[in-house]
Amino acid sequence: MADAVEPEKKRRRIEDLTEKMAVDGGHRDGACDWDGRWNHVKKFLERPGPFTHPDFEPSTESLQFLLETCKILVIGAGGLGCELLKNLALSGFRLIHVVDMDTIDLSNLNRQFLFRPKDVGRPKAEVAADFINSRIPGCKVVPHFNKIQDFDESFYRQFHIIVCGLDSIIARRWMNGMLISLLSYEDGVLDPSSIIPLIDGGTEGFKGNARVILPGMTACIDCTLELYPPQINFPMCTIASMPRLPEHCIEYSRLLLWPKEKPFGETALDGDNPEHIQWVFERAQERAAEFNITGVTYRLTQGVVKRIIPAVASTNAVIAAACATEVFKIASSAYIPLNNYLVFNDVDGLYTYTFEAERKDNCSACSQVPQDLQFPPSAKLQEVLEYLTENSSLQMKSPAITTTLEGKNKTLYLQSVKSIEERTRPNLCKTLKELGLSDGQELAVADVTTPQTVLFKLNFTT
Amino acid sequence: TMAATKTSKEQRYDRQLRLWGDHGQEALENAHVCLINATATGTETLKNLVLPGIGAFTIVDGHTVSGEDVGNNFFLSSSSIGKNPDKLLDNDPEFFHRFTLVIGVQLPESTCLRLGSVLWSASVPFLVCKTYGLIGYMRLVVKEHTVIESHPDNALEDLRLDQPFAELKSHIQSYDLESMEKKDHSHTPWIIIVAKYLEKWLSEHNSQPPKNYKEKEAFRQLIRQGILKNDNDVPEDEENFEEAVKNVNTALNPTKIPTAVEDLINSEQCSNITSQSASFWVMLRAIKEFIQSEGNGSLPVRGTIPDMIADSQKFINLQNVYREKAMQDAAAVSKHVECILQSVGKVSCKNASFLRVVCCRSLAEEYSVDSVNKDEITSYMDSPDSEMVLYLMLRAVDRFYQQHSRYPGVYNYQVEEDISKLKLCVNSLLQEYSLNVNIKDDYIHEFCRYGAAEPHTVAAFLGGSAAQEVIKIISHQFVPFNNTFIYNAMSQTSATFQL
Question: Which family does it belong to (chain A) (predicted)?
């Protein structure tokens, strides 16, 4: 069927086109651009229209802004990140940075299309940047094989827009907190130039969401923390003595048998090590047999141990596309951005729902209002700690509580450093009164969920 | 080695195998799709099919690559057939019969209708996709698509507490809550607890179960009274009883055949089984016969129960009561299948409540003046900014193309003057179909402004959406849309219409 001459002609024509481009990387203004390259984009930047943003002015300069000045930060180079980089590059953005602390795994290849089997083990950010820079002439993606916490305000401040494709709520909250910390207020009035818009995308199987956050102005991640219910772990007594499901048997093997039997010496259980998973799987099968429980499989074992969330290319493509559209709208003022939350689900047909998430007046991250802690003076510090971790609006992971007593900074409890944890552990059993705290006392709480400490005000109840 | 390839494939596809299983993956790997037009929308759709492992694809595209194509398309080269679809339709329409499904991207109306007709006759599913400015459009054309595994998000449990089968009845009877020690009492599954108290209620209420809120509250109270008390008459901490109270609504859900399944059972395909009938209909017929005999008016028991607080033995025993009944019912259905087919087939009935069929009208029916779905169009147009207006604009733009052999507003100088030309097309469209609706001038202006642009992010959104619908059709899992999907990137909203 195929006409052998046609594809050859087409291939040569593409090569001709490619040759006319500057391929040595970097952006030599306009030199990379062949005829018609940005036609699709220009129609939205250079033409007036009835639905554009009230601030929009058609101009040929908008494209130049995107190509030469607008700096975008992409957080994550995984399922969403790969799509985002492609989408941004093909929409005219050239100054892009990407941060990702992970290396490539074989199981990524069903959707993270910038990676090939030969790339397994290499840093995602670097491989992604390489691919985009080679494929999209003029695009200059700068990779950072780092955790987001490796950078401070001076790094984040340089970007016009930040777009997240993260798989962790803790990381999202941290990023959220970082952008809030960049806000500056003059006489209580927010300076709009200190706002860096945050576009956040998330996916899980066939579900996804995309949201636009203007820190200090619209609902932030913590304002809507209840939308992310905490992960449920099985109760210990069920795992230890009353298993019913194959998952209980797997957790028994992981949480109880592994530390006891230390099958590979002092090595911690590594979910990516097939030998480890095989061990957990076999012990789980034995446990299941004891109780006549069916359903323990290798796949289930791996899923439970690694807390695997199913993922496909299509959902990531949809959500990243929606996010990139918003980046374009904000960068160009072409249209009013999404206000502010989009939910997507294609299990049954295709379903989208768009709504405006509301700011919380007393949000612990963005309201600037000191958080209220109501406890009787006879309450133990342990109770305060539990409140900070279990309250659905706070959901802290391992809060470190400090305060000022007699003019000096005192750590009441800190979990993340072993020596300090041991030293401050006795405080957990002491009452707030015994610790010398008074009504109205300010407590500063640090946690992985936020780059800045959160201030709480103690309100004694009777 | 074969084993090594298998493992590496299992690892590579692990994250998606957890969604559609090995059998879904196999269907995907045996499929061969045809993409017409490797535009940005087309290649994005294809990428999202290649990544999960589609077996084969063929691209039909007669266009030569232009500068603006390279600007919005991530894929510069592809192995493609350098013919255009119109020529194929002229000379060899049966070319398209070999495909599992055909995806038609950025097709003008005339090509679309011709192709639609060929594929309809050949029963090849057809997915039409179009990115037009900030609007995405998909139309699914499939005569009859059966779904055995719809994987519903929130399915009702099948507990049969309103009509317990014999084995469940005797299992419940084996419990005597009053004489139990605390340990057993606190670890009795809530299903048993509700069943026991339901028995009590029925005997006291003339065999009438709790029906309204007041009665259900009273029933909850009755259960709460069953919580053990300690020596000081203080209720003990019995979480299983709390669960029972919490799950009263679930427990009292009457056993019912879902309307969708009821409709399928009463359908013509189910009544007239022939040697040509797909196995889906044979199974459905077997289920119908089961309902009318062994099932006593109900579907085969699903056999699963939710997790609940209980000791291992009590839970597993209860679970096995349901499981064994389900296997029994499945065997009975199998016998019916056997009788119908005179051959043995392995049947799983746990999806009986979730069977779905999607039938989309043909393009010919959608476009014909005699069968156009006027009601759907006019009722949505009561809200003049409903996504329906975008559908009508896409139709108008197609009309413009037919008349002028180009799309409106492609070049800057055309935008203004094309507005009035496009308006004429809108009016003639509305008149031809006798649609008494009003389309705001703003939309006519906006569609001229688009100049048939195919911005990458809109193409990418559609590419993800389309690919997943294709996977649904190929795997017969999850439910495809029926039949027109419109995405509006300006407002980040979407809608599905049945046209």
Answer: Belongs to the ubiquitin-activating E1 family. UBA3 subfamily.
